[in-house]
Specification:
About 55% of the residues lie in helices and about 10% in strands. The chain has about 375 residues and is α/β, with parallel strands linked by helices. The strands form 2 sheets. It has a 5-stranded parallel beta sheet, with helices on one face. A two-stranded antiparallel sheet has the order 4-5. The N and C termini lie far apart (about 55 Å).
C-alpha cells in the first residue's frame, strides 16, 4: 500500500513541476478525509491537480467554477420537476457535488448564501439537506481554491475554517522546470490506481496510528504559536491530528514521530502573512536544520522578486553584500550538516541559486 502511495506522489511530481509539497498534501488530505484550500493566481494547475489526484484514487469527481451568479442548482443539481408536481422539493443530484467523492470548487468564496449553507453541511457533516431530506454524501475530500482570501464575513469565515489544509501556490520559478512544463501533454494519465477498497484499508490504518509520542510536542507547539501571536482553535488542533497520523502512515510508521508535525505548517495559519511565522515556530521544534534551509530559500526568493522590479545601483550593491553574508552562512551550515551526516543537496542547490542571483545582480549594475 505504501509503495502505491509513493508511486502516486512520484507520478504527479514528475508531471506537475514545483508542486511536490502540494502533491503530498493532497494525498494526506485523501488519507485523512480532510479538505484542502489552495490560494493562488489563475493558471497554476490547481484544477488539473485536483483531477489528477481523483484519477489516481478512482474517485467519482466533480468540479465547478463559482461566480457571483452561480445558482445552487449548478452545484447540487436541477430541481426535480416530477417530484415537485407531487409536492416534493428536491434536486436531481446525478453527476453533481452531492454524489462526488473528490470535488474541486474554484473561487469558492464567491458563492452566495444559499450555496454556502449547503456547502457547510456537506463538508462538515457529509450531509446534504435536499428539501426536507438529510442525505448522506460520499464526499471524501473537497479541494477549494481562490485567488484571494475571504473577507471578514461570518458565513465565509465559517467555511474557511472547515478547510483544514492550506497551501499558497505560485507560478513556476525555475526556467528549466518551466520548459519541462511546456513540453508536457495537456492530458494527465495516471499509471498507478488505488481502488476504493484499498483506500478504505489505508484509512483504517491511518486511524490506528499512535499519536501519543508527539502529544507533549503538540502542546509545546501550541504554546510557542501563542507566544508568536498565532491563536489556533482547539477544534483545528483536534482535526489536525488526522493529518499528522496520515503523514506518519505515508512514511511507513505505526506511531507518529516529531517529523510528522512538519505538516502542521500547512494547517495553523489563517493569512499568508502568518505562513513564515507558523513555519518557523513549527520547524524550530521539528527540525531546526530544515528551518534554516527554508529561511535561506525565502531570502533568495525575496531577492529574486526584487530583481524583477526596477531597482537602483545602490540597492543592488546592498543586496550583493547581503548575498555574500548568506553565502558564507550557507557554507558554514553545509559543513555542520556534513559532520552530522545530514544531506546537503538542498543547501548546494541554494548556493547555486545565490551564484545565479549574483550574476543577475551584476547585469543590473552594468
Amino acid at each position: 500500500m505504501g509503495k502505491k502511495l509513493r508511486n502516486v506522489a512520484f507520478e504527479m511530481c514528475e508531471y506537475f513541476k514545483e508542486r511536490e509539497e502540494l502533491v503530498k498534501l493532497l494525498i494526506l488530505a485523501v488519507l485523512s478525509k480532510q479538505h484542502v484550500y489552495i490560494l493562488g493566481p489563475p493558471g497554476t494547475a490547481k484544477s488539473a491537480m485536483a483531477r489528477a489526484i481523483a484519477s489516481h484514487f478512482d474517485a467519482k469527481y466533480f468540479e465547478w467554477l463559482v461566480t457571483r451568479f452561480t445558482t445552487p442548482e449548478e452545484l447540487f443539481g436541477p430541481i426535480d420537476l416530477t417530484a415537485l408536481e407531487k409536492g416534493e422539493y428536491k434536486h436531481i443530484t446525478a453527476n453533481k457535488l452531492p454524489e462526488a467523492e473528490i470535488a474541486f470548487v474554484d473561487e469558492i468564496f464567491k458563492a452566495n448564501s444559499a450555496i454556502l449553507n449547503s456547502l457547510l453541511s456537506v463538508i462538515n457533516e457529509r450531509i446534504y439537506h435536499d428539501g426536507r431530506m438529510a442525505v448522506k454524501v460520499p464526499l471524501n475530500t473537497l479541494i477549494a481554491a481562490s485567488n484571494e482570501l475571504p473577507e471578514d464575513e461570518k458565513e465565509l469565515a465559517a467555511l474557511y475554517d472547515r478547510l483544514l489544509i492550506r497551501y499558497v501556490v505560485e507560478y513556476i520559478r525555475n526556467d528549466g522546470n518551466f520548459e519541462e512544463m511546456l513540453k508536457k501533454n495537456d492530458g494527465y494519465t495516471p499509471k498507478t490506481r488505488i481502488t476504493k477498497d484499498e483506500l478504505k484499508v489505508m484509512q483504517e490504518h491511518v486511524a490506528k496510528v499512535d499519536i501519543s509520542p508527539v502529544l507533549p510536542t503538540i502542546v509545546e507547539l501550541r504554546r510557542n504559536l501563542r507566544e508568536n501571536g498565532i491563536i489556533v482553535s482547539d477544534r483545528r488542533f483536534k482535526q489536525a491530528i488526522a493529518v499528522v497520523k496520515a503523514h506518519a502512515f505515508f512514511h511507513g510508521r505505526n506511531a507518529a514521530a516529531t517529523d510528522d508535525l512538519r505538516v502542521l505548517q500547512h494547517v495553523m495559519w489563517d493569512s499568508p502573512e502568518q505562513v513564515r511565522t507558523v513555519r518557523k515556530v513549527i520547524m524550530d521544534v521539528v527540525d531546526p536544520f530544515a528551518r534554516k534551509v527554508m529561511e535561506y530559500r525565502d531570502i533568495i526568493n525575496d531577492y529574486t522578486s526584487r530583481l524583477r522590479s526596477k531597482i537602483d545601483p545602490a540597492e543592488v550593491q546592498e543586496i550583493m553584500a547581503k548575498l555574500k553574508v548568506v553565502e558564507n552562512e550557507i557554507k558554514e551550515l553545509s559543513k555542520m550538516a556534513l559532520s552530522s551526516g545530514k544531506d546537503t543537496a538542498e543547501l548546494d542547490e541554494i548556493l547555486d541559486e545565490v551564484q545565479s542571483l549574483k550574476m543577475n545582480m551584476l547585469d543590473k549594475m552594468f
